[in-house]
Sequence to fold (382 residues):
Amino acid sequence: MNGKLTGYNYQTNQLEMIVWEEGVITDIQPVTKPADPEVMIAPGLIDIQVNGYRGIDFNHEALHEQEWQTVIKEMAEHGVTTFYPTVITNSFEKLAAIFQDSAKSLAALDISTIGGFHLEGPYISAEDGPRGAHHKTHIRPPDWQEFSTLQQKAGGRIKLVTLSPEWEEAPRFIEQAKQSGLVAAIGHTAATSEEIDKAVKAGASLSTHLGNGAHVLLPRHPNYLWDQLAEDSLTASVIADGHHLPKPVLKVVHRVKGEQMILVSDSVALAGLAPGAYTSPVGGEVILTESGRLHLKDNTKLLAGSAMNLLQGIQYLTKTGITHFADAWNKASLFPAKLLKLPQQKGISIGAPADLVVYDRSSGQVMETYKQGISLFNRRER
Fold:
């Protein structure tokens, strides 16, 4: 698909015309004709942890082709051009069915917006707190043979796996995951310093939603949060919705990790819906507030998942002054692309995929979204 866009580069604030052919950027030229300075062109967003969105749940049953098409369009409305549906802890039979049926639907669609699957669990901590909302019944030690079968059912589409290093089998599992080209992530863990060290040496490269999926109370030091922050080879994903992590924590992660801090939505199926009372597969009776906080109906202190989208995370980091706009955007685009070794890490440059977003900073809205030069969303055509 060939095309072009004119607007201000989100990093340089220079007015440019970006040209692409066959979905790849082929030319970038300066433009002198004035344009709205609030309208920026930026790389497409990449969300590596999405459990569902606007009523569509990736964990209940495998999605049909039309459901995949719907959620792709819904995500594009907020600038997401690549995302990784996240499937969480469940029985082997249920996981196998979800992966197998989803792989069939995605093969029929032949689309690149789905970067792959993120398997979060079942190889996580069984302890209350670190376990989060994952069902304890299905938590089990890492099993490479079982995982390989799930990967075969998924048609090789599992790209990330989150597990806890506290299992004896974890280091070897992580080694095998790395050798297979997967990102192995530490998450939902009660691991000791020694266990985290072994995981990193085995090849773990990511901390999944650092600061969440943890005990309510921790030793002052050592603890698994300090350990992961201190590991230079670990990238840290965070949920920056103003509810999961307070501003000072996000600020510390940003200061320590820099370009190794990436944003995830970790959104559940209720994300994007109107505020109100709902019944959720995870948490039961829940309330979604006007501020986007999703909590248990009977205990307002307990969150029932994330109801944000990735763009809102960028806006929160910018609004609170934790970092500037371009860096916040990079944490949801270039930096996750670098972690996953995707060509999108080239950003807006010749030879990069034409995964582009036209964003109006004054209204906080995405105006247009392109995937490899193909229009996924245009607010003017709604």
Notes: The chain is about 25% helix and 25% strand. The CA atoms of residues 92 and 147 lie 9 Å apart. The first strand starts at residue 3 and ends at 9. The chain has a mean pLDDT of 94.
